[in-house]
Amino acid sequence: MNSDLTLAPNMDRPDDIYADLLAAHDGLTKADSDALNARLILILMNHIGQREVLVQALNAARAPVTG
C-alpha cells in the first residue's frame, strides 16, 4: 500500500469540485461552516486511513505557502 502523500494535482475537474465545496457552505453561519469543514476533514481522513499519509498531509498544510 502506498504511504506517500500525493501533492501533485490529482483532481478531476478541480474548478467544479471547488464550486461544490463553496456551494456546500451557502447559507451557513460561520459556526455551521466550521462544523461542516471539521466533518469533511474527518470523513476524508477516515477515507485515507493511513496515519503516515495523514501526518504528511498535516505537515504539508502547516508549511508556509511559497510561490
* Helix and strand element order: HHH
Question: Which word captures the global form?
Answer: globular
Helix content: 55-70%
The termini sit apart by: 32 Å
Largest sheet: none
Beta content:
under 5%
Question: Oligomeric form of this entry?
Answer: single chain
Instruction: Give unreliable regions as ranges.
Output: none
Give keywords.
mainly alpha
Notes on the structure:
- By secondary structure, the protein is mainly alpha-helical.
- The protein has a domain at 28-67.
- The protein is built from 3 helices and no strands.
Short summary of the structure?
The chain is mostly helical. The protein has helices at residues 14-25, 30-48, 51-62. The radius of gyration is 14 Å and the shape is globular.
Topology readout:
Layout: H1 14-25, H2 30-48, H3 51-62
